[in-house]
Each structure stands twice: as C-alpha cells, then as structure tokens.
Specification:
Elements lengths: L1 H9 L1 H20 L21 E2 L4 E4 L2 H14 L3 E4 L1 H19 L6 H18 L15 E6 L2 E6 L9 H12 L5 H11 L4 E3 L1 H13 L4 E5 L4 E3 L7 H18 L5 H26 L1 H5 L1 H24 L11 H9 L2 H15 L6 H18 L6 H27 L7 H14 L2 H12 L4 H7 L5 H9 L1 H21 L3 H10 L27 H21 L4 H9 L7 H10 L18 H15 L8 H17 L10 H18 L9
Parallel strand pairs: 3-4
Antiparallel strand pairs: 1-8, 2-7, 3-6, 4-5
Helix pairs in contact: 2-10, 2-12, 4-5, 4-7, 6-7, 10-14, 12-14, 13-14, 14-15, 15-16, 16-17, 20-21, 21-22, 21-26, 21-28, 22-24, 22-26, 23-24, 23-25, 27-28
Length: 681
C-alpha cells in the first residue's frame, strides 16, 4: 500500500493531466447541441461532390425562416381586426341627451309641439350616429374593413360606415339644413359636442387570438419528397431550389438520427473526435513545449480558455446562430501568444476551431474564416504594451472577416444582391469585444500567476519601489544590474529570445544584495573590505545567501514567479572560487559544496543569457587597459567555463546561439571601454 501511495504521489502531476483531459472531453461534449450530424457537406453555389443523392425516406420541404416571416407579415397585414361595441356607453349618451336638451333649449319660448319636434330631430340624429357606433380613432391604418362584435354577433363592416368624433359637426349641420332647422344649429352643436362619446373600440385580445390562430394554421412546409426520388446528381451546382430540399433533408435526418437507440452511438462518436483533438494538444505540449507540459497551472490555463470559447460559441449558436461571428475567437490565440509563444497560440486556435466545426452552421466557411483570422492575429499582434498595436491588429482581423464573408457571398449568390449588411456589423462588434483582451490578460495574470509583456514593462520601470530601494541601499549593484540588463537584452534580441523578460530579470537578479551591500565590491566606496575580518567560509555564505535572500525579497514584493526564477538561477551551481581558493590555502580538506550556489541551473534561453551577461559584466571590472584581443579571450574564457561546468544543460540553447551571444557581448564591451582602432603615426 505504501509503495502504491508513493507511486501515486510521484505521478500526481500526470494523474492531474489525465483528470483534466477527461473532464475537458466531458464538458465539450456536454456543451455540444443534442443532435446528429448530416453526413454530407454542401454549400450554395458549389457543385455536389458526392454520388447521386436519392431521398432515404419521405420528408417535407421546409420553408426558410425568411419565407415564414414574410407569410406571417402578409397574414398580419391582411387580417381583419375585431372591434367591440359598447352598448352601455350608447345608453349613457341617450340619457345625457335627455337631461341636457331641456337645459339648452329652455331659453326658447317654444310650444310643446315645437319642443317635442326638436327633440325628435335630436333623437333621429343620435339614431343615425349610433347605428353602427362612433369609432374611437386608433391612428393610421391601411385596412379597409373590420369585424364589429355586437352581443354575440360579429359583422364585417367598412371603416366608412362608422362615424368619428370629427365627423359629428358636419353631420349635424347637414341634417338640420335638410329639415330647415339651421337656426338651431349652434344649440345642437353644443348639445352633441358635450354628449357624443366613441363606443366602438379595438379589441386587442380577440384580434390577437385570431392572429395566433391564423399563425397556427400556417404551413411550415412546401411540398413533399417521396422516398427514392432523385434529389441531386453528382457535379450539379447546389442552387436555390435543391438547396432548400437538401437543408430540409439535413434537418429531418439530424432530428431522426438523435433518437433513443442512436443516442449513445452519436455521443461516443463525438467523444472520440474531441478526445483526438485534445490529445493532439497534449502531445504537442509534451514534445515541443515540455516546460509548459510540466506546469499544471499553464496546462490548466490553456484547457480553460479552449473550454471557455467552446462554451460561449455553443451558447450563442443555441440562442441565434446568426450571431456566431460575434464571439471574439481571436482572443484565444492572442492570449496564448501573449503568455507563451506564437506557434502554440496558432496551434491551440486551430484545434479549437476544429472542435467548433461540429457546432456551427456552414462549418467550412466558419473554419476557413476563423483560421485565417487566427493567422492574422499571430502575424500582426506583437508588443501589446504599445496601445496602438492592438487597435491596428484588431482592425486587420476585422477586415479579414469582412473580405472573407464578401468573397463567400459572391461564390454562393453569384452577385451582390441580398448581401446581409448586418453581418458586417457583427464583425465590427467582434472587433470591439476583442479589445477587451487587455483587461482579460490582467485578470488571467492575477488568477493563474502568469506574466505578460504589459506587466514586464511595468516591472522594468526603474522608479518602481523595489528598484528605488536597490539604488538607494546598493547603488553599485543597481548600476551593475542596469549594465547586465543592457547586455542581456541585446543578446536576447539577436537570438530571438524574450528580450523584455530577460531585461526585467536582469534588473531584479541581485536584489538580495540589499541586505548586506558593503560585502559586495561594487558597493564598497572605501578601501575597507569587511571580508578581511571574516573566515572564507563565512564570506562565501554571505555571497551565496544573496540568492536566497533575493528570492525572499521578491516573494514579499509579489514579483511574478518568472522573475523570481532569474534570481534563483543566475549563478546556477557555480563555485565561489575566490573564497574557496582562500579556504584551500588555510586547509586542504575544504568541502567544495560549502562554496557552491544552491542552483538550480538555467532552464531557458533567457536565464542562460542572464548568467552569461552577469558573469561577464562583473568580471569585466577587473580588466585593465583592455584591447580587442583581451576582450575576445575574456568573453570566451568565462562562457566556456560555464559550459564546462554544465550550467546550460537544461537550457534550450544551441551552440550557434551561444556563439552569437559571445559576439554581442564582445561588441558591447568594446563600446563600453571606447576602444578605437589604433592608427599608425
């Protein structure tokens, strides 16, 4: 049992990757839409590449969403609305007439017969007005007729058969003129103006029910295809007619395929394909990026971003597949390139696009456009700490999307008609969301402990608190660090390493000397050397401890791990030779281990460059009257000594790159010492 637990502990990193791999497969397949996949790929405007296709079963030709929307609009425009007749309101008007008639005409000295006659005229006008009712104005309408619901009966009437409030005045004048009663026009106008109220209202509830009933009876299909009927022959161009038939067959096929008896087979197929894609990622990391592969945090970071993009895309597709290009997929290669390298960024992007090919419509177009956009992202995005670079790159990515979509539209339609300008707006929105990568990078740095160029730029500021403290407590060490940073940055640029990273690492590599600055020669402003009063072993311990103390200071100051690594490895496991030799003079049995730095040795090009630059810059202070030849031999001797001490075994640096670094160091030292060619007198 103990042996098993020991093996388990030893392989815990690998076991974690297996769990992460399995969990990622499960989540990706879980995100996938629940449906089968049509076995033929086709696009409008392209030839049918397969054998003659016959209908495998009976199915209906489905109308497109645009056709259904158009038919619904037609139904809505032609549908006759329902209006309700309010009889209670009509009774109120007649009651008001009885009350107000007496008041208005009381000033006239009329005989009873005349009074009754005038009242009768008023009743006749009211009867005429409320035969169909007074229509409440509902605004401008293009419809000519309506259904008037009176009691339990609905009658179809024209709008012209109803009076509106603005018509009442004219009607009253007309009727009075016909009867020779125009002398009483003002009294009748006042009377009807006060009592007439609309009593025919639009019945929204009944009209909406009728509309929904009409919609429910709307057919979503147009004709049927019988089993065995020829749909398309090989080489025939997929055009509008057979494109609709093929889409109908695809939809019917996928819905029938995802049946209970096929569910697990389809699920298994999806799982195998996703597992293959993610396996390719792990194999790539193991073979070509072993440092990243060994770091579980970085592997988790990469898988997390893939899952995030898959999740967001599938979510958008389920909501409305029209908006699939709003998802800023180019954020993925951009982020991976920022924290790792361009090749890995493109590789991760391509694998993610392949996974999404199962989810999105028109997968060929999608994969083509996204891979092209990913390549442009990798080629154009650099030095994100320069704000203009990101905007320029996003503009180029957006342009690629637009040009690609435009080309596909021409291929499919053969003209510029029916081009969907909304899609161009979606591409612009995609670009705007891509700009969000800056705060996203900051969030990732805090969550996963990674370092981007933006953070490195901030750390390279010599006015930062830690570097200010170094310059105050150990000015000689600060100056030495600046010189090392310049040497290392020049060498890194020459061999294509991360110059910004190595510069920042060089600036902070000796911060441990702040605790005992006078024990290091560059900070000794007098001829008094405190090592003269110490034993060689104690002196060596102080010198070696500046690495350990530097790591502690860096941790307390929350420096990123990548910078702390430079502090840990900048001396590797080299020997503090000066004090070791002094100890050997005192006693022959001195233990070499007491005079060696704890390591580890450099593990990357950047850390190897720092070791070379640090040793060369420090040792160059001992050169007296240097010449070209002396500098040449001096640089060769120091770097060869480090190579013979096996300090670069774990760094992925070649002999050619080391020779290039030597050349740069020699040139820089020559410039520092202002050497000139000696001209003959």
């Amino acid at each position: 049992m103990r042996k098993f637990l020991g093996r388990l502990y030893k392989n815990q990193s690998l076991i974690y990757k297996y769990i992460l791999y399995a969990l990622s497969i499960f989540l990706v397949v879980f995100f996938f839409p629940k449906g089968g996949k049509f076995k033929y790929e086709f696009q409008k405007g392209k030839p049918w590449q397969y054998d003659n296709l016959y209908a495998p079963f009976d199915f209906s030709i489905k109308k497109t969403d645009e056709e259904i929307a158009k038919e619904k609009l037609s139904i809505q425009n032609n549908l006759i609305d329902y209006y309700a007749f309010d009889q209670d309101l009509e009774k109120e008007v007649y009651y008001a007439f009885e009350r107000k008639f007496d008041t208005i005409f009381s000033g006239y000295k009329l005989k009873m017969k005349q009074f009754t006659s005038l009242k009768k005229v008023g009743h006749e006008i009211l009867d005429e007005i409320y035969t169909n009712g007074v229509l409440k104005s509902t605004g401008i309408t293009t419809k000519n007729a309506l259904y008037l619901v009176k009691g339990n009966e609905a009658r179809k009437l024209n709008f012209e058969e109803f009076y509106k409030l603005q018509d009442i005045s004219g009607l009253v004048d007309s009727d009075l003129n016909k009867r020779g009663l125009s002398n009483y026009a003002s009294e009748y106008q006042e009377l009807f103006f006060n009592i007439i109220k609309p009593n025919v209202f639009y019945d929204e509830n009944l009209s909406q029910k009728e509309l929904e009933n009409e919609f429910s009876e709307l057919s979503t299909t147009r004709g049927n295809i019988d089993e065995g009927k020829l749909i398309i022959i090989k080489g025939e161009v997929v055009e509008a007619g057979n494109f609709k038939i093929l889409n109908s067959l695809k939809e019917e096929y996928e819905s029938e395929l995802w049946a209970a008896n096929n569910y697990y087979f389809i699920l298994f197929g999806y799982t195998v394909l996703v597992a293959l894609v993610l396996l390719m990622l792990l194999l790539f990391l193991k073979k070509y990026r072993p440092i990243i592969f060994r770091n579980n945090t970085k592997v988790t970071f990469i898988f997390f971003n893939i899952l995030l993009m898959v999740f967001v895309t599938t979510l958008v597709v389920k909501y409305d597949e029209t908006y699939v290009f709003v998802v800023p997929l180019c954020i993925l290669p951009l982020i991976v390139k920022t924290f790792f390298d361009a090749r890995l960024g493109l590789y991760v992007h391509v694998l993610t696009v392949l996974i999404l090919g199962f989810v999105v419509p028109n997968s060929f177009e999608y994969i083509f456009l996204q891979i092209m956009a990913g390549i442009v992202t990798i080629l154009t995005v650099s030095e994100l700490y320069k704000r203009a670079n990101l905007f320029i790159s996003v503009a180029e990515i957006t342009l690629i999307y637009m040009v690609g979509y435009f080309a596909f539209h021409i291929i499919h339609e053969g003209n510029l008609e029916n081009i969907e300008w909304l899609v161009f707006g979606l591409f612009l929105l995609n670009g705007m969301i891509t700009l969000f990568v800056q705060p996203l990078i900051y969030i990732y740095e805090k969550i996963f402990g990674l370092v981007s160029d933006v953070s490195l730029l901030e750390l390279s500021d010599t006015n930062s608190k830690l570097l200010k403290e170094l310059s105050n407590k150990a000015p000689g060490t600060f100056h030495h660090s600046l010189q090392v940073a310049n040497l290392a940055e020049a060498a890194a640029n020459e061999i294509g390493a991360n110059a910004m990273l190595v510069r920042v690492g060089a600036l902070y590599h000796d911060i441990g000397k702040m605790n005992n600055p006078t024990y290091f020669t560059e900070n000794q402003i007098t001829n008094v050397n405190p090592h003269d009063e110490l034993q060689p072993l104690d002196s060596a311990k102080i010198i070696i401890d500046h690495v350990i103390e530097g790591v502690e200071i860096a941790r307390k100051s929350n420096l990123p791990d990548r910078i702390v690594d430079f502090i840990r490895v900048h001396h590797g496991t080299t020997l503090v030779y000066y004090f070791y030799k002094k100890q050997m003079e005192l006693e022959e049995g001195a233990d070499e281990k007491d005079f060696r730095y704890p390591g580890p040795i450099p593990f990357s090009k950047e850390t190897a460059i720092l070791m070379m630059a640090d040793s060369i810059e420090a040792a160059s202070k001992s050169l007296k009257n240097p010449t070209f030849l002396i500098i040449d031999e001096f640089v060769d001797k120091i770097i060869s000594g480090q190579m013979n001490a096996n300090q670069f075994l774990n760094a992925n640096i070649t002999f050619k790159e080391i020779e290039t670094i030597k050349k740069v160091m020699k040139q820089k030292l020559t410039n520092i010492y202002h050497l000139r060619v000696e001209y003959p007198e």
